[in-house]
Automatic annotation (TrEMBL):
GO terms for molecular function: oxidoreductase activity. Residues 16-314 form the NADP-dependent oxidoreductase domain. It comes from Marisediminicola antarctica. PANTHER family: HYPERKINETIC, ISOFORM M (PTHR43150:SF2). GO terms for cellular component: cytosol. Belongs to the shaker potassium channel beta subunit family. It holds the Pfam family Aldo_ket_red. Keywords: NADP, Oxidoreductase. This is Aldo/keto reductase.
Length: 336
């Protein structure tokens, strides 16, 4: 396993982070979820990402159980706050002081830990003054309940404003968690340059484009049973933008490149995001332990400039680059 510094800090994280969005507490049984976490640990993964909103708090409970008995100091545990939890009352979402201070206590209890290494604003809250949000995060850090602060899917302007306030409050805002893959490159134009300037790293989610970059979806073929594309609870909607005949056919053209490197397509896709020096870690999810073991092997893989050029020739023209997508997909209220 490769380890990288997270932002302009002394904290190192594993280049592969195990995340339990859409799996623990919902799509896979708890016993399998625990097996996936153990496979991650066996693969050298030390960083684990979750959120209170995942499965309405159940995912945090499952992760806490799965990590029980591990040396806490040897792990980096990340969670997030923003989305609606509990009975979803008027103050059960967002980044108000009330919700942040109540949510961190709930997360720590479910995760069975005294602190999280990274506490992240899951989205930007347009209904709460940023000053209030950052002051609440500062208090969480000073109380010893979180060591560092991060955000997820913030625009370049939001990152700049949040970082300035964090600096004034003497806390470290060191990470952003955006979607990033061969097919979704919207951070490259604005978010990444600003992040480099401010000392913020990316912890990227969906490096295999919700499974599309594994090559399991083939043009003209039936969808694999139990796959994300058949999940009517939300997975199918998220993946539909990539499920075009042109994209699916082009993904198959990556097979010769992967085989030359003794990789499968998922490993190639993860190695591709990790080639970016602003990416500290790529989040992988799994429904089976063997998926974790296989994908973790992407850590430490070096892609030559020639290989990157060949990948761009296959998929570059199909990728989304528009930086406005981050703002367009951001919640317009706490409830969305």
């Amino acid at each position: 396993m490769e380890f990288r510094y997270l932002g302009n800090s002394g904290l190192k994280v594993s280049a592969i982070t195990y995340g339990n969005w859409l799996t623990h507490g919902s799509q896979v049984e708890n016993e399998t979820a625990v097996g996936c976490v153990r496979a991650a640990l066996d693969s050298g993964i030390t960083s684990f990402d979750t959120a209170d909103v995942y499965a309405n708090t159940v995912a945090e409970k499952v992760l806490g159980k799965a990590l029980k008995g591990q040396r806490r100091e040897s792990l980096e545990v990340f969670t997030k706050v923003f989305g609606p939890t509990g009975p979803k009352g008027p103050n059960d979402s967002g980044l108000s002081r009330k919700h942040i201070l109540e949510s961190i206590d709930g997360s720590l209890q479910r995760l069975k830990t005294d602190y999280v290494d990274l506490y992240q604003a899951h989205r930007y809250d347009v209904e709460t003054p940023l000053e209030e949000t950052m002051q609440a995060f500062a208090d969480v850090v000073r109380q010893g309940k979180a060591l560092y602060i991060g955000v997820s899917e913030w625009t370049a302007d939001q990152l700049r404003a949040g970082h300035a306030l964090a600096t004034d409050l003497n806390i470290q805002l060191i990470s952003n968690q955006p979607q990033y893959s061969m097919l979704w490159r919207v951070i490259e134009a604005e978010v990444e340059p600003v992040s480099r300037e401010l000392g913020i790293s990316q912890i990227v989610w969906s490096p295999i484009a919700q499974g599309v970059l594994t090559g399991k979806y083939k043009p003209g073929s039936a969808l694999p049973k139990g796959s994300r594309a058949t999940d009517e609870k939300g997975g199918a909607k998220m993946i539909e933008r990539f499920m075009t005949p042109e994209v699916l056919a082009s993904v198959q053209e990556l097979n010769p490149i992967a085989k030359e490197l003794d990789l499968d397509l998922a490993q190639l896709a993860i190695a591709w995001v990790l080639r970016n020096s602003n990416v500290a870690s790529a989040i992988i999810g799994a429904s089976r332990p063997e998926q974790v073991t296989a994908n973790a092997k992407a850590a430490g893989v070096t892609l030559s400039e020639e290989t990157q050029s060949r990948i761009d020739a296959v998929l570059g023209h199909l990728a989304e680059y528009n930086p406005a997508r981050t703002h367009e997909q951001s919640p317009k209220s706490r409830e969305t």
